[in-house]
From TrEMBL:
<keyword id="KW-0443">Lipid metabolism</keyword>
<dbReference type="InterPro" id="IPR042171">
    <property type="entry name" value="Acyl-CoA_hotdog"/>
</dbReference>
<dbReference type="InterPro" id="IPR003703">
    <property type="entry name" value="Acyl_CoA_thio"/>
</dbReference>
<comment type="similarity">
    <text>Belongs to the C/M/P thioester hydrolase family.</text>
</comment>
<dbReference type="Pfam" id="PF02551">
    <property type="entry name" value="Acyl_CoA_thio"/>
</dbReference>
<dbReference type="InterPro" id="IPR029069">
    <property type="entry name" value="HotDog_dom_sf"/>
</dbReference>
<dbReference type="InterPro" id="IPR049449">
    <property type="entry name" value="TesB_ACOT8-like_N"/>
</dbReference>
<dbReference type="GO" id="GO:0047617">
    <property type="term" value="F:fatty acyl-CoA hydrolase activity"/>
</dbReference>
<comment type="subunit">
    <text>Homotetramer.</text>
</comment>
<dbReference type="GO" id="GO:0009062">
    <property type="term" value="P:fatty acid catabolic process"/>
</dbReference>
<protein>
    <recommendedName>
        <fullName>Acyl-CoA thioesterase 2</fullName>
    </recommendedName>
</protein>
<keyword id="KW-0378">Hydrolase</keyword>
<dbReference type="InterPro" id="IPR025652">
    <property type="entry name" value="TesB_C"/>
</dbReference>
<dbReference type="GO" id="GO:0006637">
    <property type="term" value="P:acyl-CoA metabolic process"/>
</dbReference>
<feature type="domain" description="Acyl-CoA thioesterase-like N-terminal HotDog">
    <location>
        <begin position="37"/>
        <end position="121"/>
    </location>
</feature>
<dbReference type="Pfam" id="PF13622">
    <property type="entry name" value="4HBT_3"/>
</dbReference>
<feature type="domain" description="Acyl-CoA thioesterase 2 C-terminal">
    <location>
        <begin position="172"/>
        <end position="291"/>
    </location>
</feature>
Amino acid sequence: MNATPPRAAPMDQLLHLLDLSDAGGAQTDEYIFVGPGEANAVRPRLFGGQVLAQSLIAASRTVDADRLVHSMHGYFLRPGDAAAPITFGVERLRDGRSFTARRAHAYQGGKPILSMIASFQTPDEGLEHQEPMPGGVPDPETLPTAAQLLGAIDHPVAQSWAHDRPFDIRHVDPNIYFQAPGEHVAHQAVWMKALGTMPDDQSLHRAALAYASDYTLLEPVLRRHGISWATPGMSVASLDHAMWWHRPLRVDEWLLYVSDSPSASGARGLSRGRFYNRDGELVASVAQEGMVRLPEGTPGID
């Protein structure tokens, strides 16, 4: 009997996902890249953060190296197949003196699953201010890891959350993986850090942050109604995603991800998030609306 080959480390898997193949653009108006599906997927649907990150990498490949992404706005159009490769088409929209704009589509089966526009900028000087980092937050070293919380649970999703994610995610508030204890509030904070050292490539760090930003962003919507990820029959899907990068960052150093939900209605919930480094600098902001559908009779539905 052949032994099962060892699984790659989560960080190696992330770097592999972001290492797109250049397929050229000779036969189309788009620059074409190809990326792999999701490694070690336990669900058939592709993780949205992966498609965001890969699309940003594809777009950045067509931009001068001194221009970094500062904003992106994307729509998830169809569920992605985790087992299938993804084709990325990038269209040049504008190349200005300071700003560059690109449109990127992610395709599977000849149909777009994500449509995104991203803007890139050369370094510049100007006004400076930021919303301050919340105080009184415990250090990440004092909080349990997902592996410590979920590693002993005999369930494939729990095992994937515990061991397959390329980020160490530590909830400041009680986690809502399988239960939703505590007060029903529409805000939370988590610490995040990549499980390994990343190359000194700011474009790669920004794409990896887009990847990680999709993990917990809708949790304030669920937390507000005392609902956990394990709620039977619940269906949750990201609908759109907007992100702004304010300052240089490293995802292999701890970042505090503070998020809140100002509204939920019409089977949709809106969440906003802010990323701070340990020096208190606001390095990125994010917003997302997601579909949240629950069976009738589920607590939290009027």
